[in-house]
Design brief:
Order of helices and strands: HHHHHHH
Helix content: 55-70%
Number of helices: 7
Structural class: mainly alpha
Shape: elongated
Distance between the termini: 32 Å
Oligomer: single chain
Low-confidence stretches: 137-142
Length: 143
């Protein structure tokens, strides 16, 4: 399990760092514009011209770096989780489902869910739930 979480964390982190840097450093050509007057065009016009997109991309790079290392993975998931939810909502609501099932997005969601599941005990504690001592201890003590 440790190897799988390390690989998933490294790949998820790498993806978000690369996607963030591509936009921040303007390495890749911009995607083709959406048709004028459409909901995605309005959304992206507000998103890109206000500087909001740059902030999100900086958070993607930061979250990607954090999730890549096991010691900071939980913090990385807390940063990347809302970003991934917003990406899903953009495709579901603004794009009316277009791109929602793209392979890259599905892999990012799968890695995120796997890592969140692997860290579920820590997140349960964070949410105020006390871990069950009988479930967490593999050795039972004799009375």
């Amino acid at each position: 399990m440790k190897i799988a979480t390390t690989i998933a964390g490294a790949l998820l982190g790498f993806a978000f760092v690369i996607f963030g840097l591509l936009v921040l450093l303007q390495i890749a050509p911009p995607p083709p514009p959406f048709s004028e007057g459409s909901a995605p065009a309005h959304f992206m016009a507000a998103f890109a011209t206000t500087g909001y997109l740059q902030v999100v991309k900086v958070l993607e790079v930061l979250g990607g770096l954090l999730v890549a290392f096991p010691q900071t993975r939980r913090a990385g998931l807390l940063v990347l989780g809302p970003i991934l939810v917003n990406i899903l909502l953009f495709h579901a609501l603004v794009m009316h489902g277009e791109g929602l099932f793209s392979p890259v997005l599905l892999v990012l969601v799968a890695f995120t869910l796997f890592l969140a599941w692997a860290e579920r005990a820590a997140f349960a504690t964070f949410l105020g739930k006390q871990p069950d001592p009988q479930k967490s201890s593999p050795v039972k003590s004799n009375p």
